[in-house]
Design goal:
About 45% of the residues lie in helices and about 20% in strands. The chain is built from 13 helices and 11 strands. The strands form 3 sheets. A 7-stranded mixed β-sheet has the order 5-4-3-6-9-11-10, with helices on both faces. Strands 1-2 form a two-stranded antiparallel sheet. A two-stranded parallel ribbon has the order 7-8. Helix 8 (about 145-160) links the parallel strand 4 and strand 5. Helix 2 runs antiparallel to helix 4 (about 50-65) and helix 6 (about 95-110) runs parallel beside helix 7. The relative contact order is 0.10.
């Protein structure tokens, strides 16, 4: 099979799962993963024959895609904030909207120095690594309940040559969270998809990603926001700020929750798609 026919083979094999444009994008990612060649090089060498090993990997990649596995898990990489990060099924795939949350924090902190920052539920480590990259004199810590996720995050920190202190703690356990020191900024992109929403969201969105990092009970959709806000109320230094990425349907509820818990200047911010996606509140 040549490079050109392999590309066509991929797009045809996943045409029922993705529209034409997305299928082509995925095929380009798979072909670069298989060949190590850029798009331009693949055009120039479109008649080059794939090796038996590449053909086998191609077959495995297509089977994984047809079983709804995200292409990032197949290649083992995902880009976030200009960093190529390692990902696997222990962590969520970093989203572009989360880059906007990081950028909001970086802009707010642009003229502050030696900040102590905490990320709650770090997953791949994308948020704390991006913050450390942008705010190099900050002391950045990150926690997750999943040892599998922390292994991925530590690997990414080494790969990016960035120093972040990773901790295995349960954000829903007040006793464990009480052991934390104080911080200037706390951020979290917690689980926020309700179980009823799971039934209507495409399996392509959530099927292969860790449910621990995605879902909350229908009867307590603010579970993580409440626990993290209570912790932040105690651990933030005066004038410190708490940032959340949120379920677009819960913007007003998160704002009310934070105001009821004593946060001031609570701000709801939309993402690039016009959806309610981020909330910030200050500790008095």
């Amino acid at each position: 099979m040549t490079i050109q026919t392999a590309f066509t083979y991929i797009t045809g094999a996943i045409s029922e799962l993705y529209d034409e444009r997305e299928a082509a994008n995925i095929a380009h990612i798979i072909m670069e993963y298989l060949t190590g060649m850029s798009k331009l090089d693949r055009i120039v060498h479109k008649t080059k024959i794939l090796s038996p090993e590449q053909n086998q990997r191609l077959k495995e990649a297509i089977e994984a895609l047809q079983h709804h596995e995200p292409v990032q898990y197949i290649t083992g990489t995902s880009w976030f904030y200009g960093m190529e990060l390692f990902v696997n099924n222990q962590v969520l795939i970093p989203r572009p909207e989360t880059e906007e949350l990081v950028e909001w924090m970086v802009q707010d902190a642009a003229h502050r120095h030696r900040l102590h920052i905490l990320d709650v539920g770090t997953g791949s480590g994308c948020i704390p690594l991006a913050l450390k990259k942008s705010l190099p004199d900050a002391q950045v810590s990150a926690l997750d309940v999943s040892e599998g996720a922390l292994e991925v995050a530590r690997r990414n920190a080494i790969r990016q040559r960035l120093e972040v202190n990773f901790l295995q703690l349960d954000a829903l356990n007040p006793q464990e969270m009480a052991t934390l020191p104080s911080f200037d900024l706390i951020v979290s992109n917690p689980p926020y998809i309700t179980q009823s929403e799971q039934q209507i969201i495409s399996r392509l969105v959530w099927g292969a990603e860790p449910s621990l990092a995605l879902f909350v009970p229908d009867n307590d959709s603010l579970l993580f926001y409440r626990h993290i806000s209570l912790m932040a109320r105690e651990k933030l230094l005066p004038g410190g700020a708490l940032y959340f990425e949120i379920n677009e349907a819960l913007g007003k509820e998160v704002v009310v929750l934070m105001e009821q818990l004593g946060f001031q200047e609570v701000t709801l911010k939309q993402d690039m798609f016009g959806k309610d996606r981020m909330v910030k509140g200050k500790r008095p």
